Amino acid sequence: MKRYLMQRLLMMIPLMLMISFIAFFMLNLVPSDPAEVALRVSNIVPTDEAIALMRHELGLDKPFLLRYLSWLWQVLHLDFGQSFVLRTPVLGELAAALPATLYLAFVTFVISLVCAFSLALICLMTKTPWIDQLVRGVIFLLMALPNYWLALLFIWFFAVQLDLFPVSGLQESGAVFLPAITLSLSYIGLYLRLIRGAMLTQMQQPYVFYAKARGLSSWQIIRRHVLRNALPTTLVSIGMSIPALIAGTVVIENIFAWPGIGRLCISAIMGRDLPMIQAYILLIALLFLVFNCLIDLLQMKLDPRLRHH
After folding, report:
1. How many domains does the chain have?
2. Are 184 and 108 in contact (CB under 8 A)?
C-alpha cells in the first residue's frame, strides 16, 4: 500500500507540470491585454506609455518561457503571484474563498448521497414497477433542467414568495440550502443510477438466493450483503464527482452571490486576471488528482483482491 501511494504521488509531479504549462500557454493566447484591463480597473487612461509601464510592472514584457519558469518557481514556493486586478496575493484570495466552496460542496454531497441511497432503496424494494419508473423519471427530468434556471426558480419561489431562505450570501443562517439543493439535483440522478445499477447487479448474485433460502428478509439482505458488495463499484464514480462538484459550483455561486472560489474565478475571467485563473486551474487539477488517489486507496482497502495487482 505504501509503495503504491508513493508511485501515485510521484506520478502527480509530471502531470501537474504538464497541466501548469498548458494552462500558462493557453491563457497567454488570450487576445486582450491584461495590462490594459488592469489600467481600466484602476481608472487610469490606457495610453501606450501607461500600457508599456504596466506590462513591465506585471512582467508581461519578458519572453514566454522565462515568464513560465519564473512563475513555476514561485508556485513551487507557494507563491502564485499577485492579482492583476485586486493587487493582493492570489494565494490569500483563494485561501479566503475556498472554505465557502468546500462548505457548499459538502452540504450538496451529503444531500445528494442521502437522497440517492433512499431513492435507490425505494426503487429496489418496491413491488410495483411503476413506482420505480416514476422515481427515476422525475429525478432524470430534474437532471435535464439547467441548474441556473432552477436556481432562479428556487429564488423566486422559496426566497421571494415564501420568504423561507435568504436570497444570497453566506452570513445568514440557512443560506446554504438553496444553492446546495440546486446543485444536488444534478447529482442525485447520477448517484441514483450508479447505486441502483450496482445493487441490482448484486441482487442477481448467487449469495442473495442463498440468503433468501436461509430466511433473511429483503431488507436484511440489502443491509448486510448487497450494500457492502455494491459499495466498491460505485465508490470510484462517486468519489471522482467530488472535485467535479467543487469545480461545478461556478454558476451557482455567482447566482447566489456565494463568496467561494467559483465566484472568484468568474471575476478573474471577466477581469483577465491571469494569475488568479492559473492558480484556480492548478487547484482544481490538484483536487482531481488527490481525490483520484484517495479513492483508489480506499477501494484497495475495501477490496483486498486489488492489492495483488
Report:
1. 2
2. yes
Report the length, in residues, of the chain: 309
Backbone dihedral angles phi then psi of residue 304, each to the nearest 5 degrees: -60, -25
Q: What is the pLDDT of residues 60-85, one digit of tens each?
A: 788 888 889 988 998 888 888 888 77
The Cα–Cα gap between 229 and 290 comes to 25
pTM: 0.84
What pLDDT sits at residue 304? 66
Specify if 90 maps to a domain. no
Residues 6+ apart with CB under 8 A from 240: 288, 291, 292, 295
Cell matching residue 279: 492558480
Domain range enclosing 20 = 2-76
- Whether 271 and 37 have beta carbons less than 8 Å apart is answered as yes
Give the tens place of pLDDT for each residue, 209-250: 888 888 887 778 887 778 878 877 787 778 778 888 888 888
Quick: pLDDT tens for 257-289.
888 898 888 888 887 788 899 899 999 999 888
Please report whether residue 187 resides in a domain: yes
Query: Collapsing DSSP states into helix, strand and coil, what is residue 169?
Result: coil
Domain membership flag for residue 182: yes
Task: Provide the residue type at 77 as one letter.
Answer: H
Q: CB–CB of 135/233 below 8 Å?
A: no
Q: What phi and psi values does residue 82 have, to the nearest 5 degrees?
A: -105, 145
Q: For CA atoms 96, 102, 105, 108, give the dihedral sign.
A: negative
Residue 297 near residue 5 (C-beta atoms within 8 A):
yes
- Dist CA 169 CA 148 (whole Å): 16
pLDDT of residue 303: 65
Among candidates 293, 290, 194, which has minimal Cα distance to 237?
194
Cα 302 from Cα 298, distance rounded (Å): 6
Considering the domain architecture, whether residues 122 and 243 belong to the same structural domain is answered as: yes
Residue 197 located in a structural domain: yes
Do 153 and 259 lie in a common domain?
A: yes
306 pLDDT more than 70: no
